[in-house]
Records
---
Amino acid sequence: MDEAANKAIDLFVQKTGGQVASLLEACTRCGMCAEACHYYQATHVPEYTPIWKVEMLRRTYEQRFTWGGKLRLAMGLDKEITNESLAEWSNYDFQACSMCNMCSMVCPMGINISSMIGMVRSGITAAGLTPEGLAKKTATQLETGSPNGATEDDYAAWFERSSKEMGRELPIDVPDVDILLVLTNLEYASFPGNLASIAKILDAAGISWTLSMEARDAFNMGAIIGNGKIMRQLADKIYNAAVRLRVKRVLVSACGHGFTTLRDKLPNARGEALPFEVIHIAELMGDVVSDGRVKLQQGFLSDNGHTYTFHDSCKIQRMGGIMDEPRLVLKQMAGDSFHEMLPNREQAICCGGGGGVRAIPEAFDTRMAAFELKVKQVENADADVVVTTCSNCRLQFMEGFKHYGLDKQVSGLAELMAQAIIE
Amino acid sequence: MDWNAILAFARGPLFNAALLIFIGGMLFRLFRVVMLGWGKDYSTSRGSKATGVVQSYLKGLFVLPFWPWVKGTFQRNPIPYIAGGLFHLGLFVVIFLGTAHMLVWKDLLGFGWPTLPMPIVDWLAVAAIAGMLALLVNRLVHPVMKMLSGPSTYINWMLVFLPMITGYIMTHHLFFRYEVAYSLHMLSVDAMLIWIPFSRISHFMFYFFSRTMHGAELGKQALTP
């Protein structure tokens, strides 16, 4: 047996509790999850079937925990897990899965397939077979603080520039405030205006807030590659800053996995409830508008000749539950020129760039093929501006529209809202 | 061959033994999974897990093809959807609302219940058998289904199909003498009962685990499963 494969198997065995076992036992191999997956729909590669991506975990479970599985292995009816098989599954689980969880919405048994794909990713990472693009970004984040190599000095310069633009000193490491705002390197690199926009929204709502150099990037490569230790190490930076500054809430800007990692995974990794609340900017925008703390110019976007649609991101909307808040804000601004893409909300199709897929060069064709589904939806909604609350989706949309030669815009909701605020 | 003796054995001692293996085996599997341990969830809830669970089961029951959240799934998977649906509907009606089977339940449990008229049960049995055949063909030709299926998948299919087809033959007095058809029906039922604990046919038990967890996960975020 291969030593690297053994590391993966040990991890699978260790992670298999009642939850995983019952999900695996519930699967009837009906194959309906295939058509739920945007990568399968776009390519019809059978191996992209979501439950097939869990095959390594199923083999381990049956061969290690059940008599039938042991018997089948002994009789040569089931295959062993080898380095080669793990390397093969690395292509399916990393390059053709954005962990969007649409498969579990379609599964007649309601099996949470993406949580198990996450475990397979962990095993592949334990065996040292993480895709190179992701492994590099992980190393860079551990070294510099951000997966793209943005350092503390880079962030300081960004904060400085934003301060000048706003004519207001940005609060950094101020204790005892309500909110600690955590940004991402995607905004630093591609959407630097997001910081000033969020600052303007927080100021208009009269919320006390701060930034922190220690907690500057919500991005979490550990969560993406499935390395629990690195995930905890990166998330704890934010935890430590929040505790040190005694904030009531941690506000994650336009990052999907960073938000759910902090809110849902970190408490379970630490084995305790967090002493602060974790919220997403999409949620906060809706809350301050609906309780009247921030007033928006009604119809701010409705007469400019554009039509708007909203993209439901998998981590923030389908898994995070922040569905109504961003719509409330967008509807106030865009009125009748806001059109829903269908299917939407819980049933929305992923943009194809999440879960680290955008960071794997080999996955380019697959993710662009999957994006074509999104193009059709946008066209059916008769919209020319797509609004998102996730910077990663936003980049995928920008790249995708360019790839297909489409003249469509992509906007971040916070930037739009900041312009519509009535002072 | 003394088919009367075979029948007496198949519906007597063998049936009782098969039932014991079925119940004991399923209990064993249930305990084995439960005893693997369940992680505690420390994350906060935005909604109600209970509401999500209720919605999850309602959605699992009322899967009408024209409902918005079913439509896409239905259009992309028409064969497993219709054939699978008819099979399960027919199966449940025949097992619980067919008079002959209700009498078996009455014998086992000590009480009975009203049943449906024979023609309705009969047509649903035909639908279930047709559904199973369609599912088998789909499994044999669709690239995804071929990839997902192994020997045990086909054994499962066979051991569920045999009781259904022999039951139909027996009810309609086709091909065989009554006691022969009845014996074949009982033998295949016994074989299926013994096989279930060793197979994925057991999904009827774990359905309640996955569906509950799914509902709780989405309900926790105030979402509709």
---
Amino acid sequence: MIPTTHYLLLSLALFTIGVIGVLTRRNVIVILMSIELILNAVNINLVAFSRMLGSVHGQVFAIFIITDAAAEAAVGLGIIIAYFRNRETVLADEMDLLKW
Amino acid sequence: MTGTTVNLVLFYFFGGIAVLSAILMVTRRNVVHSAIFLITSLLATAGIYLQLQAEFIFAVQIILYVGGIVVLFVFVIMLVNLDVTLHQAQFNRQWWVATLIALVLGAQLVFAVWIGRQGSVLNLPPAAPALTAQNTEQVGQVLFDTYMLPFEIASILLLVAMIGAVVMAKRRI
Amino acid sequence: MNPQSFEAIRPYLLPVLYGVVLVAVLPLIVGYIILLERKVMADMQARLGPMRVGPHGLLQPLADGVKLMIKEDIIPEAADFWVFWLAPLITFLGGMTALAAMAFGPVFQIADLNIGVLFILGVSSMGIYGIVLGGWASNSHYSLLGAMRSAAQLVSYETAAGMALVTALLLGGSLSMRNLVEAQQRSGVWFIFLAPIAFFIYLIASIAETNRSPFDLPEAESELVAGYMTEYSGFRWVIFMMAEYANVIVVSGLATTLFLGGWLRPFASFHAHLPGSAIDILDAVPGLILLLVAGYCFWRTPKQPVQIQKAVMALFGFICLGLAGALTLPLSSAFAAWMPGIHGAFWFLAKIFVYVYGFLWFRFTFPRYRFDQLMRLGWHFLIPLSLVNVMGVGIALVLHQQAGWGLAGALTLTTFGTLVIAGWLVAVSERHERELLTPASLAGGD
């Protein structure tokens, strides 16, 4: 069978790419999508361990994370729409109202 | 023997698509293309779940993540569609520092996983048919038995998120 | 090929064969559903429909196919080419993949997944992407507007459809398509009689899910040209159409499996209750129906005006005769084993035909819903009703299993409760609709 290490490394690769996406992109929507990628990577981790340990708790935790990601995406996108209506921009660099 | 080979081939296939789509997603100029690559990455992840014989999570991933969350993203992308962003800079000014730090973080985690690889061999046989045939039942059992409180809290969380999203996106409250 | 490797791939040969048959036959079936739609529309509008190409227009799909294939492939200049190319394929793939888990009979099923219903729901919700991306990639106002409306509609009715299916799953106890039909066989009565409100909700939600009338505002000709399909011409439009009708077949198949007893003959389990097997005479009905159709074809053959149409009519007559023979006469004991499979497939297809006929009937009877009415119906009526229905059936099952009530009695009680709440919901929405049209609200903003 496939060692768990393979799945962990895959999840790490996705996690790193997601972190790079969050830290480098200017478009806030792409930042949110990268956050979804990070949560997804964590899910792969959980499901791989659930399979390794033979218990289903990991998968249940993964379901909760998916639910959480949905809630967060909805609210985040609502904020983006509200901000866009006021400031006409979706670039993170230009959202600097709180800067001195 | 052929079982393991098929499993390895499937793993590399789905894993490769997931990583490749993720890289493409983070680097596309057009946000709609990014969304499409997010879809393929999530679908490949669903394939990984199926390969781990977690069929309920496979279905939930497709219905919720691909069929719900990314649809939300695509809607918002079309609502805030700015053609001008296609011609502006894609990455912020600190991109090389950020990439470096992220790669260092990744290297640290890879190191941690690599050290611990001896104790993490999946030495189970392909899970007994009775076990996999009951995946949904088992998930349901555990969800409504041990995790009943988090389940209710998650439903309240979703209610709050729904109200929050509606309030944030209204034109006039 | 040595025997060992043949044994290794043998379990995969039959599903591959089924898959090939399905993919090969689907365009033909879609073509004939389109012809059926035109003939039924004509019949309901007191005219004849296509009559010229082949006898009674029976070769019309072939002519349409050839015409659309040789059309020029026009792509808008500012359209995003790759997404434009990809969009119809996504919708089509969503529909076709869902057909892989569908059980067309006790034998004809590509894969009996443990999570069959969930898989079909998930994969058919991928069709939203084809619509939205197609509308966006066309770089045209009508397309984008139609795409957004269509996607909003699909997303709104998905929840109601899912909840209605959950009701049937509560009664069936499994997500696998095969187990659900066997559960209906064990309980002796189709789930539509145990959960009629769920079937009603699913009927409406499935019409909205496939963008058919009266919920077809996104693709209505007088409203938005053709909505998200405006810029698609020739074969790309054919793929969108095939995807839409494949979705119709998927949705009908789901309704048939979950509510109408799948491949079960009417009164399939009655010989367990009644003495003697008089009810088994219904087994001869499929052969009889096809024999009658063959007889009609042969009777009309000499009345065709043109020689080639005579030949085509006689050909259809012989095809129906062959099918009737396949259904009634096992030539040897080897074929007798195939009888349940063939009969099951016939009943399944017959039920799908009835459901699709219902779709066509609705299309030509009801006027189109306005978009806000459509959304209000989905969110304010169907979703609360489906939630109450799930609770109701759950309560009925608990009363039956824990408190020892009879299932029929408990379900009747909760169905009446749900109907009362449905009536209240309708009254509330009527009041809202009336309030919408008062001068005060028409003058103010939103």
